[in-house]
Amino acid sequence: MYESRCGVLCNSCERKEGVHCKGCINMEKPFWGGECKVKSCCESKKLNHCGECDEFPCDMLSNMGKDQGYDPSVKIEQCKKWSLE
Ligand code: SF4
Ligand code: SF4
Fold first, then answer.
1. What pTM, to 2 d.p., does this model score?
2. What is d(CA 36, CA 21) in angstroms, rounded to the nearest whole number?
3. 34 pLDDT exceeds 90?
4. Residue 64 CA to ligand 1 centre (angstroms)
5. Cα–chain-centroid distance for residue 6?
6. Among 16, 44, 57, 62, which residue carries the largest CB count within 10 Å?
7. How far apart are CA 79 and CA 3, in angstroms?
8. pLDDT level of residue 8 (50, 70, 90 thresholds)
């Protein structure tokens, strides 16, 4: 079952409890308070997660978090898995 729009596994996040995050699909805005453009885009298309999108994996998803040292391919692979479920 999908846990986020982008492929992050929110239920396995060790910080979730500590920062009172409800997880991507259960919150209006990310716990940090700003807008997540991936979440907004995905929900505006009424998709469960990015893997269901015709444009998957778009440039925005493919580059998200790179500047902070995260590897976007992990989330992309997770979206692919959800698409096969
Ligand atoms: S980065 Fe955005 S789409 Fe991904 S889990 Fe967080 S709020 Fe959801
Ligand atoms: S893959 Fe890209 S265009 Fe498609 S819903 Fe996700 S963020 Fe939006």
1. 0.92
2. 14
3. no
4. 10
5. 2
6. 57
7. 10
8. very high
